[in-house]
Amino acid sequence: MQNKHSRNGFSGQLGFVMAAAGSAVGLGNIWRFPYLAAKDGGGVFLIVYLVLVLTFGFTLLTSDIAVGRHTQKSPIEAYETLKPGWGFLGKITFLVPAIIMTYYAVIGGWVLKYVMTYFMGKGHAAASSSYFASFITSPVAPIVYGLIFMIFTSLIVYRGVQNGVEKFSKVCMPILFFMIFAIAIFSLTLKHTENGVTRTGLQGLAVYMIPNFKGMTFGKFLSIALDAMSQLFFSLSVSMGIMVTYGSYVKKDVDLNYSINMIEIFDTIVAFLAGLMIIPSIYVFAGTEGMASGPSLIFVSLPKVFNAMGVAGNIFGAVFFIMVTFAALTSCISVLETLVADCTKLFHSSRKKTTLVLTVIYSAATVIITLGYTIFYFELKLPNGAVGQLLDLADYISNSVLMPITSLLSCVLIGWVVKPKLVIDEMELNGENFKRKSIYSAMVKYIAPVIMVVLFLQSTGFWQWLSKILH
Q1: Rounded to an integer, what is the distance from CA 129 to the centroid of its chain?
Q2: What is the membrane topology listed in the Swiss-Prot or TrEMBL record (predicted)?
Q3: List of long-range contacts for 128-133, beta carbons under 8 Å, 24+ apart
């Protein structure tokens, strides 16, 4: 069943690049990248992130895609095929999208709500500080929006790899890129005067781009590097089985070197443009203080910015949240597609039946996670010091625990067990020259495993615990 499914994969290189880039370009690029850049010294974060994309991110992305195409199997089988006895890694990898899928449609529903708000011309209501909290704690509305998002995602996956995932990505990604680019350029033209002080979009660009080394210490630099590394997981869709799945759909005559380069470039440009459209806008209307809102930046801070724009704010807000919806959909589709690929093999079921069953399961999960802000509300202190609810707990387990473990084990398997030559040979299958093979070998064997251990200890609160013990 799986082999047949794999043969009916992407039609060619363009379809693969668009779908993989669509998976990579998600909410992590739109909301997480800008607030991390604002928090971590603007240009300092950009430089560190770019270096890590070209080394650390490139290594994980290459490994996942090459393993997928080499084995022609979904993650649940790929690692056992690669090396007997390593099937447990496929099971761990399976858990990541299985958990992420429980809450991704919830966030997608939040975005849909804001699309409707701005389409109805109620941007002034969204600018209220209590609007977001009132919405997510209401008994019905967030459930309805979450289910709509879930159903739309399922319909695309139900249609198959070429007719669903690939076709949607080919249409959606150019539109998404154009919208991000247009909003980014528009943000640079903004100007606002308040209390006799005029701030411009170009000044906001300087805040975003120019490295700020003021007060920089080794500890602060390490924190910036860890933020940038954790962002790579969100940004490139690595270590969650997605790129292994997409790699298994790639034909053997496709140039993986070119494809991976294009995915890296596309994803990095979109992340950069996301910062370019958000940070100058926030700066113009709220100064540097407005950029300190962290994850709530999209749903709380930006609506205030749109409201300050006057009549144009409703149009700007509508376009922005439509763009975010596209980004959320392409990522959510890739998560569900990975689960479908795994489950068709696990349960020997057809693609359409598997998609329908998973839709029912994750619709129920969407309702439960949504109710985590009402009847199932609780406050749990996570090991990294944050306090969260059901959604935050699921996000922490998948992104801060399972993904670093998956990456570490994947690097050990490829770097020390099957050896990097297996991936290098796959990259050079059609005679192409894998120009970064020396970097790849060094990263996968020595550097990436160390980085993953440090990141895992940081995300689990080990360093905070050690600091308390030492003091």
Answers
A1: 26
A2: Multi-pass membrane protein
A3: 129/300, 131/303, 132/296, 132/299, 132/300
Q: Which residue has the tokens 């701005």?
A: 118
State the Cα–Cα distance between residues 338 and 341, nearest whole angstrom. 5
Task: Read off the amino acid at residue 465.
Answer: W
Residue ranges in the chain whose pLDDT is less than 50? 1-7
CA dist., res. 195 & res. 391, Å (int): 40
Question: How many angstroms separate the Cα of 140 from the Cα of each of 11, 118, 330?
Answer: 41, 20, 26
Using CA atoms, how far residue 266 sits from 6, 17, 18, 53, 223, in Å, is 25, 9, 9, 12, 26
Class of domain 2-464: mainly alpha
Q: Which of these, 16, 25, 14, lies nearest to 266 by C-alpha position?
A: 25
Q: How far apart are CA 326 and CA 20, in angstroms?
A: 14
Distance CA 350, CA 292 (A): 48
Tokens of 152: 């739309």
Q: What is the pTM of this model?
A: 0.92
The values of phi and psi at residue 251, to 5°, are -70, 155
What are the φ and ψ backbone dihedral angles of 248, each rounded to 5 degrees? -70, -20
**Partner residues linked to 194 by β-bridges:** 197
The per-residue pLDDT for 26 is: 78
Buried b (16+ CB within 10 A) or exposed e, 342-373: bbbbbeebebeebbeebbeebbebbbebbbbb
Look up residue 42 and give its DSSP letter. B
* Structure tokens belonging to residue 121: 């011309």
pLDDT value for 257: 93
Count CB atoms within 10 A of the CB of residue 396.
20
Q: Residues 188, 19: contact at Cβ < 8 Å?
A: no
pLDDT of residue 292: 61
What pLDDT does residue 106 have? 96
DSSP conformation class of 380: E
Query: Residues 240, 403: contact at Cβ < 8 Å?
Result: yes
Tokens of 314: 């409703």
Report residue 199: phi and psi, to 5°.
-120, 140
Predicted pLDDT of residue 455: 79
Report how far residue 100's alpha carbon sits from residue 333's, in angstroms, rounded to the nearest whole number: 12
* Cα–Cα dist 151/155, whole Å: 6
Task: State which H helix or E strand residue 199 sits in.
Answer: strand 197-200
Contacts of residue 239, defined as CB under 8 A and 6 or more positions apart, other chains included, come to 60, 64, 93, 96, 233, 403, 404, 406, 407, 410
